[in-house]
Every structure is written in C-alpha cells, then in structure tokens.
Design a protein that fits this description.
Layout (H helix, E strand, L loop, with lengths): L3 H14 L2 H4 L11 H18 L3 H6 L3 H6 L2 H7 L7 E4 L3 E2 L4 E10 L9 E11 L5 E5 L2
Antiparallel strand pairs: 1-3, 2-3, 3-4, 4-5
Length: 141
C-alpha cells in the first residue's frame, strides 16, 4: 500500500467530521434574530413560567383583550392548573407580520395521581407588540 493514501485519509477526515453548519458561515440557522424577536421570546418565556408556577394573575395580565375574549374563564383556569412537575420547551420562533411572533411550544404535564410519566402536548404561542417595549400573548395554547 502506498504511504500517501493514509496521509490523504488523515488530512481529509477532520473535514468530513465537521458539521455542515460549522463549515458554512452563512447558514440561516445562525442568523441573528432582530431585537423584536428577543423581546417576544422573553415575553413568551415569562408567560410560560407563569403557567408552570400556576400563577394565574401574572398570566392573565399578559393576555391581550382578544385572547381573553376568545377563551372562557374555565378554560383559562384549567390552563394555569398545570401541576407540580409541569415543564415546557420553546422551539425557535418565526416572525409573522408586523410585531407578531409565533413560538412552537411543547408542554410536559405530569400525572400526579398515577405512576405514569404524564403526557406531552404540542401547541403554539403568539406574542404581539402591545406598546413600545411591551409584549402580550395573543393566543393561549
């Protein structure tokens, strides 16, 4: 076997093991989101923390009037009764039209009355600009 072949393989191997995103500096997944995105994501996180902590008051204060009107009091109360081991995961959001962002959310809801692991529920949260530096939740998951 020729000695050059193993040297070629060794020199190419690191390049082959490098993820595509690391080689492509212009990857869209590495794009820096706009300022509105970061603020909307922070608002979504605060709202979901209120859900996780069963903090009805904070959650209700973050809802737009339209979101309050489209959901019954019973449904809203049920939503904020998440249970002690409730958790959530926010996926990368996307900008909608003018000051609106959509964030996919997965809820992990435990079943405290049994030994089962609980259930997951996929949904989406819509965050809207409600003022200069204010954001509100326009769609309750």
């Amino acid at each position: 076997m020729h000695l050059a072949f193993p040297l070629i393989i060794l020199s190419v191997a690191p390049w082959l093991s490098t993820p595509t995103a690391a080689r492509n500096k212009h990857s869209s997944s590495l794009a820096v989101p706009d300022r509105g995105y970061s603020s909307a994501l922070a608002a979504a996180n605060r709202f979901l923390q209120a859900w996780q902590n069963q903090d009805h008051e904070t959650g209700l204060l973050m809802l737009t009037d339209a979101a309050k009107q489209s959901s019954s009091q019973e449904r809203t109360d049920s939503f904020f009764s998440s249970g002690n081991d409730a958790a959530y995961e926010i996926a990368r959001g996307r900008k909608l039209k003018g000051g609106r962002y959509a964030f996919p959310v997965t809820f992990f809801i435990s079943d405290s009355e049994s030994n089962r692991s609980g259930r997951t529920q996929k949904s989406q949260i819509i965050v809207v600009r409600a003022g200069k530096d204010e954001w509100a939740i326009d769609k309750v998951p």
